[in-house]
Amino acid sequence: MEGDSVLYPLNLELAGRSCVVVGGGQVACRKVRGLLTAGAEVTVIAPVATDDLQKMAACGRLKWLKRDYQQGMLKALRPLLVFVTASSQAANAAAIAEAKEIGALVNAATDPEQTDFSVPSKVQRGDFLLTVSTGGGSPAFSRLLRERLEREYPDSFGQFLERLMVLRDEIKAMPGGSREHERLWRQSLNQGIIDLVRVGHLDQAEEEVRNGITNAGIKSQDSTC
After folding, report:
1. Nearest CA to 145 among 157, 133, 137, 154?
2. Which residues of the chain have pLDDT under 50?
3. Is 131 exposed, middle or buried (0-12, 13-18, 19+ CB in 10 A)?
4. pLDDT of residue 4
C-alpha cells in the first residue's frame, strides 16, 4: 500500500471463497483461524506447519499442500485473498508476483509496499463487529484501542443486535415504505439505548425501542389528520 493512500474500509463475505496462506508458522496459523471463522475455503502452502495447522488439516478444516510454493499454484486455486507469511523471501516474492498476475489481493506483513489490504484489530459479538486500524502505523496502539472497545462493548451488544433484527423484520412488514421505516428507526433509537445495552438491561432497552416506534407511528398518524 502506498504511504499517501487512504484505506477503504470494507467487510468481506468470505463464505465458500478460496483463500491461500503461504507459510506454515505462527503468523500463518493466526491468519488461518480468522479465515476459517469467516467460512473461507483455506489452502496452506508450506513444507512444514505448526501442530495446530496440521490438526486442522487432518480433520479437514483446511487443505495443506505440503511443499514449497511453486509457480502456478495460485492459478490453480483461484484465490480471492493471498496471505504471504513464509520464511523464504524468494517464495514470498514469487507468490506475490503470481497473486498480482491473477488479480488476487495480497497481504504481506513483511513487505508493506506489496500489500493490498490489512486485517484490522476487531471486537466481535455475534454479528456485531467493530474494527480498529492504524494503517500499520502503530499495531500496539491499535491493540490498546481494541482492548478498550472490548470493555465498552460486551457480549450484550451482540445479544441486543439479535433483538433488533427481529424488530427490523416487524418494521419492514409495516406500511409506509422504506422512508417511513427509516424515520421510525431514527426516532426510536438513541444514545440511552446504548447505555442500557452496555449494562445488560436488554429487556428495558427493547421496550424503549418498541415504545419509540409506537409513539413515532402515532405522531405520524396525528400529523396527517
Report:
1. 133
2. 224-225
3. middle
4. 63
Question: What is the dihedral angle through the alpha carbons of 122, 110, 92, 87, rounded to the nearest 10 degrees?
Answer: -100
Partnered with residue 20 across adjacent β-strands are 43, 82
For residue 165, give every residue at least 6 positions away whose Cβ sits within 8 Å of its Cβ, in sequence order, or none. 127
Report the C-alpha gap between 188 and 212 in whole angstroms: 4
Cα-based torsion angle of the residue sequence 209, 145, 2, 4 in order, rounded to the nearest 10 degrees: 80
Q: In sequence order, what E strands does the chain have?
A: 18-22, 41-45, 63-65, 81-84, 105-108, 121-125, 128-132
**Buried residues in 165-197 as b, exposed as e (16+ CB within 10 A):** eebeeebeeeeeeeeebeebbeebbeeebeebb
Distance CA(43)–CA(176), nearest Å, equals 48
Q: What is the pLDDT of residues 17-43, one digit of tens each?
A: 999 999 999 999 999 999 999 999 999
| Residues 15 and 40 sit within 8 Å (Cβ to Cβ) | yes
How far is 75 from 98, CA to CA, in rounded Å? 8
